[in-house]
Amino acid sequence: MMRRRGVGVVGVAAVAHHASNKGAQQQAAADQQAADQQTIAAQQAALDAQQAPAPPAAPAAPPVDPQMAQLENLANLHTQGILSDEEYTAAKAKALGI
Hints:
By secondary structure, this protein is mainly alpha-helical. It has helices at 8-51, 66-79, 85-96.
């Protein structure tokens, strides 16, 4: 009678172990590749942010002339009726140094 030569239990276990190691290695490689892609994407986003043109600077407000500000304030007070015509004229002349 011929005996069939088989792998046996130990052989099957070795093949299964080898297959599971190969699958784990492939999964680890896929995980590493995904992590690398995320790192590259983050680096690219940071680089894009650095290279973005700066927004234009807001125009500087013209320097305020104190005498002009005082005259505008007097005109507002006169318009609101707080200063009479005579008071406004006198205050304006004083502000202008007349």
